[in-house]
Amino acid sequence: MFHKGHFEAIRQEEWVRLYRKKNPAADRWAEGYGSIKHEVETQAGIFAMAEKLVLKGIHGDGVPFFDLLYALDRITSASMWIVVHETYARNVYLDGRDLRPEDFKPNPEGHTGGALNMVPAYAGYMAINAITGHTRSWVMGQGHCVAAIDTVNLLLGNMTPAHAERNTLTYSSALWSNRGSWI
Fold first, then answer.
1. Within this chain, do residues 42 and 132 fall inside the same structural domain, yes or no?
2. Residues 135 and 180 in one domain
3. Which of 11, 21, 63, 119 ranks highest by number of CB atoms within 10 Å?
4. Does residue 108 share a domain with residue 165?
């Protein structure tokens, strides 16, 4: 026998399917990216948020909502990739070339697992600020949070001059270099 929750799930799946069919940008985002997957419940919540933002006339920084979420998935994925490498490497080559022995840290360090958890949280925080056009305060900032925050900020170009001097992302040589001690 079916219970009420089963019918609600079917209705939700149908609504998500129809929303994606009518909204190509939403459909593109809903596909996810790499290890980032968007379950039906997540899609339903995001689609409802998109509708509510329209009804309230909230346009934030002016970037189309699903374009921002599409970019967010990529920033989050790239940030997690860098955070993993920060533990072991001094340099990471964005063009895919192999690391050389001198690219590795002599003594790996960091809070990799905790930092990986914080990357989506901080990237989401930055996204909601852009979506609403309202900057909130971020209270986490020590230990494993620093690696996540600094990595996302590096990719977004959201750094103070001191951070920019210590951490560089050079596209010409496809090299990211961690000269400071993030983790």
1. no
2. yes
3. 119
4. yes
Same domain, 44 and 113: no
pTM for the whole thing? 0.82
CA distance 128 to 136: 9
Instruction: Count up the domains in the chain and report the number.
Output: 2
**Which stretches of the chain drop beneath a pLDDT of 50?**
171-175, 179-183
Q: Do 83 and 130 fall within a single domain?
A: yes
The residue with tokens 């809903």 is 30
Tokens of 113: 């697992």
Report which secondary-structure segment, H or E, holds 176. Answer: strand 175-178
- 49: Cβ contacts below 8 Å, ≥ 6 apart: none
User: CA 161 → CA 35, 82, 139, 182, distances in Å?
Assistant: 32, 21, 21, 16
Q: Which domain does 38 fall in, by range? A: 1-57
